[in-house]
Amino acid sequence: MTNDIPNSVILFAFGLTVFAGLATGIGAAVAFFAKKTNTRLLSTSLGFSAGVMIYVSMIEIFPKAKASLVAELGELQGYTYTVIAFFGGILISAIIDKLVPSGQNPHEQVSLSDIQDVQQDIKKKKKALYRMGIFSAIAIAIHNFPEGLATFFSAIEDPALGISVAIAVAIHNIPEGIAVSIPVYYSTENRKKAFFLSFLSGLAEPVGALFGYFFLLPYFNGITFGITFAIVAGIMVFISLDELLPTAEQYGEHHLAIYGLIAGMAVMAVSLLLFV
After folding, report:
1. At a CB cut-off of 8 Å and minimum separation 6, what does 170 contact?
2. Helix (H, G, I), strand (E, B) or coil at 36
């Protein structure tokens, strides 16, 4: 199937994945140079990202997966496979979350006040801070791998859809960059090292895209496309419900997160209508 996809589309999909992954570097820059984090804006943005991902997963990606599988396998079997693959994507994300110890899992939210409390006792906790930063980088890399797959295959199917997914993923990668850079910086006082580790953790997303290109894309047909797309939808829904919304509420107010969620859905709906 790779022969049927123009090289320009594949390069564009890779470019979007790199953009989304390297947004962790934006988080590092924010952590270094912002005098005060605008938690209300961050909360609304994370809610917005969740709205985009949930809407596009349920309204666009899941139906396309179902249509592809139904065309190949028939109505009942195709729909059944779509549902199984969707929940399989959720299960994959849940297993990844479970394998990462909660103390080092950036998806087990660390509040800004927690970071500040640790900074106050910096001399005693430098080693612990550094360890936190390293494990956060590893954990983020593990979580970013399937997100790279989601961004890559969304862009392969529909470049406009890929842009929306990439932006949503990039927004939620910003606080992940903060989670890596802050502990490393305050334990080493080395901005370059903190930024590099944050930058490195984001590279897991283009690695996920490379995995998809070399190991999944060559075997694509109607069935493998449908199953992969349904898995991607499940991964994105899990990320939104398990990570984005809880983090959005933690950084701000409940209503800000929900307003951001609704705004994300509305913007996604309008953008999809423009390409009908």
Report:
1. 19, 20, 23, 26
2. coil
**H helix runs in the chain, sequence order:** 7-21, 23-33, 39-55, 62-73, 75-99, 112-120, 122-157, 159-188, 191-202, 204-211, 222-239, 245-251, 254-274
pLDDT at 237: 92
Q: Please tell me the distance from the alpha carbon of residue 68 to that of residue 94, in angstroms, as a whole number.
A: 26
CA 154 from chain centre, in angstroms, equals 13
> Distances in Å between the alpha carbon of 191 and those of 22, 104, 113?
17, 21, 21
Measured over the CA atoms of residue 233, residue 234, residue 235 and residue 240, the dihedral's sign is positive
In 3D, which of 211, 91, 58, 62 has the Cα closest to residue 148? Answer: 211
Residue 39 pLDDT exceeds 90: no
**Three-state SS for 22?**
coil
User: Is residue 92 exposed (0-12), middle (13-18) or buried (19+ Cβ within 10 Å)?
Assistant: middle
Phi-psi region of 24 (alpha: psi -120 to 50; beta: other; left: phi over 0): alpha
Note the pTM of the prediction, 2 decimals: 0.73
* Dist CA 133 CA 136 (whole Å): 5
- Give residues with Cβ within 8 angstroms of 87, minimum separation 6: 234
pLDDT reported for residue 121:
53
Confidence category of residue 9, pLDDT binned at 50, 70, 90:
very high
The pLDDT of 204-214, averaged and rounded, is 92
